[in-house]
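Shipment paperwork, digital attachment
Item: protein structure file
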Amino acid sequence: MLIKIPGEDIFIKDYGWHTGRFHFAFADYEDPQNMQFGVLRALNEFVLQPGNGFETHPHSEMEIISYCVEGELKHVDSLGNSSTLQEGDIQYLCAGSGITHSEHNLTSDRKLRFFQIWIAPDESLLEPKYQCLHHTQLASRCNLHHIASGEDREDVIQIAQDANVYAARFAPDEPLVYINDRGRQTYLVCLEGGLMANDLDLSKHDALKISGEEQIRFLSAEDSHILLIEMAAHQ
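Attachment content:
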């Protein structure tokens, strides 16, 4: 089954110094009917204006993957990590038993656009940890690039959950086939451009829920960019 969620139906709020687009109930967005999708607890898109950011704040009992789409993301945490993400880079924060961190756009003239994926781990009180990947292979087109997995894979962030995160960029008229297996489910968001998913037309900010055994053929008439989170199906 494929269910399209139009971008205009996804909650968005302008805070002045940044905007937040929340696919599931989060912060100022309250909706008891839209709390999560399986173990995917949050999928947030943030656009931060130059010189602004989230000051030091705590997290616990969550795995947080940040994916930088545009600009530079400066991260500092209580484990002593400090890094700057560029377009296509990924960072992983296992909040576990407790951690604090900050995120900023320190540039003077460029906005920062990034996505945060919150996944509920299968264990509590995990040891907090941080990892950063510079995903230069995302420059290649029409391939699924594995970002995170519950399995131990080379150059892929290992998470404490039966889930996988992928990103893909599309060149015009070059198809990509994605298979969702029986007993699994996937949440997809179109980050840039637009594309067809079988007979569904997806534009920037649109999302797609995929469940059950499905084969999806993606085809774009323009440069496009998607993010997919795949996991075991949950009622």
